[in-house]
Amino acid sequence: MTDNHREEVAGLLLAAGGGRRLGGRPKALLEHRGHLLVEHAAGVLRAAGCGRIHVVLGARADEVRARAGLDGCVLVDNPDWAEGMGSSLRAGLGSLAGTGARAALVSLVDQPGIGPAAVARVLGAYADEKSLVSAAYDGVRGHPVLFGAAHWPGIAATATGDRGARAYLKEHAAHIRLVECSDVAEPYDIDTEADLRHLE
After folding, report:
1. Model confidence over 53-80: pLDDT tens digits?
2. How far is 105 from 137, CA to CA, in rounded Å?
């Protein structure tokens, strides 16, 4: 990875969800390997080579700020977090405007099976602000996803509800570079009580 990857690509961690299917426990505050999930996820982005990391908070944001060790991260409040992931994506991309970032590498707080190796692969496929890169698992698009800055306005315009950038990515499928990661990561989500077995 070159230095310009580290400088030009910002890590964007979406960690605002309220954990509706987990009885209202925000995923950012779940524990994994002795750390809060939001700390773990931010650490993965840093270990993969993201020099700048923005973390979007929503549900119980004050508690996350008080409890989580997120030194060096830019914390972004999303007051509309209950609307779904789309609002967090818009808030996160908005927070990167004017920072000099030419791409955003977007990861989700509830996927601890995706570690630095997979994130670094996606980061390594960055070329310029027109880049559109996604991790793939057995050929199926997943996270993390890298959006060059040229795509941010289009994503922000279509990111609604829990769909995030799905509509935009579908429309631009022909331009997405897929990076296979199934050999180094597992893309499960921590969504329900049953999924908590993945946490250590």
Report:
1. 999 999 999 999 999 999 999 999 999 9
2. 17
